[in-house]
Amino acid sequence: MNHLPVLPILLPLITGALLVTLPRLGLNAQRFISLGATVAGLGLVLWLGSMVLEHGRLVYALGGWAPPFGIVLVPDRLSVLMLVLTATLAVPALIYACRGDDDAGAHFHALFQFQLMGLNGAFLTGDIFNLFVFFEVLLIASYALLLHGGGTARSRAGLHYVIINLIGSALFLLALGMLYGLTGTLNMADLAVRISTAPAADQPLLQATSLVLLVVFGVKAALLPLLFWLPRAYTAAAAPVAALFAVMTKVGLYAMIRVFPLVFALDQPLAALTAWQWLWPLALATLALGGIGVLGATSLSNMTAYMVIVSTGTLMAIIALGSTEALAAGLFYLVSTTLLTGGFFLFADLIARQRGAAGDYMVVTAAMKDRRTLGILFFFGAVALAGLPPFSGFVSKAWMLQASLGEGAAGVFWPLLLGAGFLMLIALSRAGSKFFWRQSPKREHDIRADRVRLACVIVLVGAGLVLSLGAAPLMDYTRSVAAQLMTPGDYVGAVHEAGLNLKGGH
Amino acid sequence: MEALYAIAVGVLTACGIYLVLRGRTFPVIMGLTLLSHGVNLFLFASGRLALAAPAVIGESADPTDPLPQALVLTAIVISFAMTAFVVVLALRAAVELRNDHVDGVDPEEDWRP
């Protein structure tokens, strides 16, 4: 059997364990190992991606135990998209951290690797209890990463973040207990078959289970009534950590589009699910709240945190439409918005370092040393984030607007999406003019921007331009991802066949 | 037995939820612990309740389902570690913020930093 699918989990696990057990290693050696493993991880997921492109979907049975009893990893097109996105964001975030942020507390690199392990595992697994375990791995690493560097703001935000996620985990276990009690299996493909043939008497309980899962994934993805932990946590986190966290909310979204179409909608259209009908109004409310939050933010990192909420609301709303085209448009937007918001968390830190005590708060202070470079970069970044041409945000928004037109949902979705975009534009212009145009007459700050840090931000903002210029291949790819998601029968068939092959081999 | 078990799970969960909604960190942590006890018992019951049936095939004519026990074991390990972590975090927050409220501010105390 080809062992490639498990390597994106093993590599960060072994690297992280190595970094914990070798505490005497100097910081430079740690940076070297961590960075090497992260870049190698990017190579691995690209390699895995090429295999998946060839075969459409791989099924890897851990330890050679046949599904549905053994745990399977099922890398398919959606997994590969998320894996490559995570690795692409992780490399600049880690390089940025290596310029000094990793020195603020112990074990930064080990925790970073465990975080990557949890993310990769969650994207690969085909077993719902295993999904819970990887959620826990990434959450535990994120608790410690959020607190990295210490300080009262982080302790306070960390307490909220940890408590709400512990309650989320308890609810996840309740849902899994109900699923196991009703069906006797936890393998997602097997669950799909059992649920589609479940007796009518079990339907209310299954529906309740799906709603509990919606709450669990909603906590992770920051859906409206469950998102109030996010702005404070993301604002308080160290910049490279916040950049990596930009992909964390997308894990909740990933779990939704992995679990609901497959497990609960094998024999019925996605839009007919009760959970999916709840998603649409909640997503729109999230979008509206995010737009207002962006306008009221007190600092640039706080504003970026609210932009994460806007992107969650947008994504949830577009996937709630439930059509293949809408899903494809949403996935394109997911890639674009994750890289840009991640980049903006780093950018906020870069600006804060030039402004002394004022930090990235929206106050007028003395001029920055690198105001020209940063100002031009801010202009392009703001244009990209607000979704104006020629950046990928525009392409994805135009596509989402088109897709929603086909579903007859444009009347509600258009005003909210465009309105939120407009509010973002106002807030970003306000921030830009405060930072770069209005300066107090005091002597200018004489701290220069770190070249490497600047390069990391340029790469992530530039990704918006690259994704826009080379949009066609990615659009084709997200279309194929959406098409694959909408045919859950193939997933079930592939896992079933792998199980039969394994049993036949013994 | 089922009724007694269900009542125990229900009481644990209800108490857990009530305590989690309190304002100070200590009751919240107690609530999280009770909640995880309730959840663990619930998970255990997902394999159906049976008396005198070991979870090992071959030991008796009618073995019970071993999987929920493995799931509960995983859940216990995770919740145990997380309780330890949240206790340390709450202590640290209490020292740094000079009060033990979950929001970091004591509404009854007029204390300014």
Characterise the protein shown here.
- The complex is a heterodimer of chains A (506) and B (113).
- By secondary structure, chain A is an all-alpha fold.
- Chain A is 75% helix and 1% strand.
- Chain A has helices spanning 7-21, 27-55, 77-97, 108-124, 128-146, 152-183, 188-196, 203-221, 230-236, 239-245, 248-264, 274-296, 300-320, 324-354, 371-386, 392-406, 410-437, 451-469, 471-485, 488-505, and strands at 60-61, 72-73.
- Chain A has a two-stranded antiparallel sheet.
- The model of chain A has no long low-confidence stretch (mean pLDDT 91).
- Chain B is mostly helical and 113 residues long.
- In chain B, helix 2 runs antiparallel to helix 3.
- Chain B is elongated.
- The chains are: A mainly alpha (506), B mainly alpha (113).
- The interface between A and B is medium-sized, with 28 and 35 residues.
- Chain B: InterPro entries: CPA3_antiporter_subunitC, NUOK/Mnh_C1-like.
- Chain B: The chain crosses the membrane at residues 6-21, 28-50, 70-91.
